[in-house]
Amino acid sequence: MFARIDKLWLTTLLACLIPLLWLFLDIAFDQLGSNPIQALHIRLGDWTLRFLCLTLAITPIQTVTRWRGMTVYRQLFGLYTFFYASLHLLAYLLVDHVLQWRLIGIDIIESSYIWFGVVAYIIILLLAMTSSKWSKKLLGKNWKKLHRYIYYAAGAAILHYFWQLKGNLVEPLFYLIIIALLLGFRVLVWLTNRQLSKMMIPKSRE
Amino acid sequence: MIIKTQKAIATSEITDPLIFKQRRKIIKSLLAITGASIAPAWANDNKSAWLNLPESQFSEKLLTPTPAELIKNYTNYYEFAFNKEDSTELAQSLSVDPWSVEISGAVEKPGNYHLEDILRQQTMEERVYRFRCVEAWSMVVPWIGFSLGNLIKSVKPLSTARFVKFTTIEQPDVMRNQRSNAMLTWPYSEGLRIDEAMHPLTILAVGMYGDVLPKQNGAPLRLIVPWKYGFKSIKAIVKIELLEKPPLTTWNQAAPSEYGFYANVNPDVPHPRWSQNSERQLGSRFFSPRRQTELFNGYGEQVAALYRDMDLRHFF
Question: Which range scores top for mean pLDDT: A138-152, A164-178, B5-19?
């Protein structure tokens, strides 16, 4: 049983690298269009958002299906979100701005869409740093509180996407809807639980 | 007035003249073989001449043009598509032959002019210009066109004419975002102050790289104002009006706080949501530095006088 789960986990671990491999192939065969550097930013940003959605989807899936042991997948997707976000940031700093810190400084100060990206990245970085079982134990109740910030990261990431576009909002809208649905599901669960506990309390008193 | 066109250019931007000429020869010979038969009627008269055009004093001859394939596949033509690739194919369904332009408003000789007739009257020139998009990317394009000022003079503007308004064709049958009324107010329109329109750097382009304009790049007739952000350089023009008052322009109307009427390239005036300090040149490689954006896109010596007493932050 465990071996089978580990196998699936390992397959997932490797499968999450396919987007990166795909990107390398597109770079090698010059398939990124007229502005490959911008295409690189969009590709890596897109995959960050996709992994963020996947991470957020795990708990609702677990609630609906009552499958157990999916926490490891939530952690895995979460870490991949951090991985692709880091590549996105590195591409900005290194591939596009070649570590020209003066230009980078001006760009960040003058571009409000980047601020949202920075906020999202700092949150994801903190969550990645505290993703181990060991930190979970250490932080106790605070761990859950801290890791709820993923919703702020999701919001900031979507704003980061929206805020840089001239007008076409279809793509970020797509992510916004997905994340709103996932968040909506949690609110629904929370409301039903509260309702249930309200019903239970007077009963137990009687 | 003496207009200076010489200015310092970074050595990295300069192509060896010998290589440059060889490239031109190759391109021209290729065009001679393939191009002539598919050109629209209004271009046929002039096209052979386009291959050996006089070198304009306003052309930046030493700049290396961006490869044509990149220019043709990276366009903002929102009538067709909101991304930069799909218009390449979608724009092919636009019929550009025959084409006429309505010139009206404060002119002595208003009328509906056939493009063919306009081109016969005007002197074609090749102008290698930098093109800077408000989205912080740029390219260098060898346009073929003629002075807008000369066209305006030929229809005798009245002294009351202080602005020029341009309008793109309205053809919802083929322009799907006009059909669905998506995003902007159609048809697209742009405007210039009369002195900007009369400036010798301002041209109406009908071609690039020695050939007719690709449809996705604004065929058959588009404006080019090289010191302004690309959205000012309106495509597929069917109407030119001379007006007393400043016209409403499409992007300015859509988001007045983000896109001004002037839209002069200016690294010190950021867009409200992003910096305009540097630009990514199409055709540049990974790990190559961005280009530092220049005031008036590098055409300051020629055009700064137009805005002498103006606060460029206010009139962005």
Answer: A138-152
**A164·B274 Cβ contact <8 A:** yes
Using the Cβ of A168 and the Cβ atoms of chain B, whether some distance falls under 8 Å is answered with: yes
Average pLDDT over residues A77-83: 98
Whole-angstrom distance, CA of residue B79 vs CA of residue B93: 12
| Interface touch A166/B282, C-beta < 8 Å | no
Q: How far apart are CA B185 and CA B309, in angstroms?
A: 32
- Whether chain A has a CB inside 8 Å of the CB on B36: the answer is no
Residues B238, B168: contact at Cβ < 8 Å?
yes
d(C-alpha B204, C-alpha B225), whole Å: 9
Closest chain B residue to A160 measured between Cα atoms? Answer: B273
Omega into B187 within 30° of 0, i.e. cis? Answer: yes
- Locate the domains of chain A by residue range: 2-178
Say how many residues make up chain B: 316
A99 at B interface, C-beta within 8 A: no
CB contact burial A94-120 (16+ within 10 A = b; e otherwise): ebbbeebeebbebbbebbbbbebbebb
Residue B21 has pLDDT above 70, yes or no: no
The C-alpha of A163 sits at a distance from chain B's nearest C-alpha, in angstroms, of: 7
Which amino acid is residue A29, in one-letter code?
F
pLDDT at position B35: 46
**Would you state the pLDDT for residue B4?**
52
Greatest alpha-carbon span in chain B: 55
B137·A35 Cβ contact <8 A: yes
Contact B270 A111 (CB under 8 A): yes
User: Helices A170-205 & A36-65, crossing angle to 10 degrees?
Assistant: 20
Give the closest of A96, A106, A112 to B280, CB-based. Answer: A96
pTM over 0.90: no
- Pick from A103, A113, A168: CB nearest B278: A103
The string of pLDDT tens digits covering residues B26-76 is 655 655 555 444 566 666 655 666 777 877 889 988 899 999 999 999 999
CATH number for the domain whose boundaries are B12-307:
3.90.420.10
CB interface of A with B, residues 182-201, below 8 Å: none
**C-alpha to C-alpha distances, B204 to B91, B119, B196, B199, B234, nearest whole angstrom:** 19, 10, 13, 12, 10
Please tell me what DSSP assigns to residue B95. Answer: -
Mutant choice from A30, A32, A37, A92 vs B, greatest count of B C-beta within 10 A: A37
Q: Tokens at residue A112, please?
A: 């409000």
Q: How would DSSP label each residue in B180-209?
A: TT-SSPSSPEEEEEHHHHHSTT-EEEEEET
- Complex ipTM > 0.90: no
Q: A115 at the B interface (CB within 8 A)?
A: no
Tokens linked to B291:
């280009």
Pair of tokens at residue B275: 């910096």
Q: Which chain B residues touch A103 with a CB distance below 8 Å?
A: 277-278, 289-290, 292
